[in-house]
Amino acid sequence: IPYITRTLGAENLGKYNFAVSVVSYFTLISSLGISTYAVKACSCVKFDQRKLNRVASELFSINLCTMLIAYLMLFTALTVYPKLFAYKGLIGILSVNILLPVIGMDWINMAMEDFRYITIRTAAFQMMSLFLVLIFIKSSDDYLKYAIITVCVGSGANILNAFYIRKFCRITFISAFNIKTHIRPILLMFSLLIAQNILSNLDITMLGILATDKDVGLYSMSVKVYITIQKVISSIAIVLLPQTSMLFKEADFDNINKLLKKVWCFIYTFSIPFVTGLIFLSTEILGWICGEEYTSASASLSILAIAMFINLSGASFWGNIILLPSNREGRFMLACVTSALCNAVLNCYFIPICGISGAAVTTVISEAVIYVICRIKKDERIQLHFTWTELLGPFVGGILIGLICCFIKSMISGYFLRIAFSIMCSAAIYVIVLTIFKN
Predict the structure, then answer these.
(1) pTM strictly above 0.85
(2) Fewer CB atoms inside 10 Å of the end CB: C or N, the chain?
(3) d(CA 357, CA 304)
């Protein structure tokens, strides 16, 4: 990120991110929600080889059909909309990402809980990406090369995966697949994911339409920092999806409640210092990671930090860890669709007035909408009881972290030194506070 932001500049990076946001909609049409549904469906039959082969083959066959539909729709969109045609080179390169997940079928690895392989493979290809970027990206005009590198790294990982998953099951194309069994949950998941995708990408897309490429570049880096940290914490939802799906299928609510309490305490305890740090050190983080040009987006990053906390408590916890595994996708879909509609309407009002900060404010409101709807009429068998020490420790620690960050900013100059000393002092104080409160 530090190298790319400084080399490509905000404007050309904005072009790249706008093209990514456009292609992501067609990637979603191609996936049709199959990947998330497939993790649930395959994890429930993973101990029966015959059923696993059949289910995986049917889902792969459906995915091939939806991929062809997605490419046809993308070609039509490029032909009809002049705004998109101006980005045809970037969109053409990035459209390969529509094909890659279909042949990679990473949902097999997730259903089989083979996270070691996923981690090693991802780390290896990301390192390859880093070296290719350092070798080939030399000026602001190299944004097409950057798109090619990101696609090549993704293609390598997915092609490797197409061979690797043979250790788990045999997948073949089935022309007469059982569409009735899969269509309802797939369409429910598709509606859910398209709402989530619109929610996460609509800000950038509408900034590209209502504002400038530079605004898109500035805001997209705030989003990248916020999403990177969010994924560090919310990755627990992805890891637990196979396990929680099995527990909900067996209606084992004693173990479900124990697991959910641990997960919520984990999210709460680890998100507080991240959120506080982003709010008080947003200028330093963007200035150090992305360069001085991006510090004007610090206000949007501070606002997005609040959205991150609401997302972790709402969409990540109540949505991905409770509603999806318990087959209540409909409620989660309602929450995400309502939130996406709010996001679209509010962006039309806030972006022309407040620019990138307005886009961040709409994200906070949209995440709050998801949280409220997910909590309405929760399953009464889900009982989460917390002690005051579990809640108060992180809260007190967060207040102290904010005071530490303000003190260090007033005493030390330089983005890196401020961040380094703030992290070291905050981590030490936070651990001490949690220890005192027996967290």
Answers:
(1) no
(2) N
(3) 9
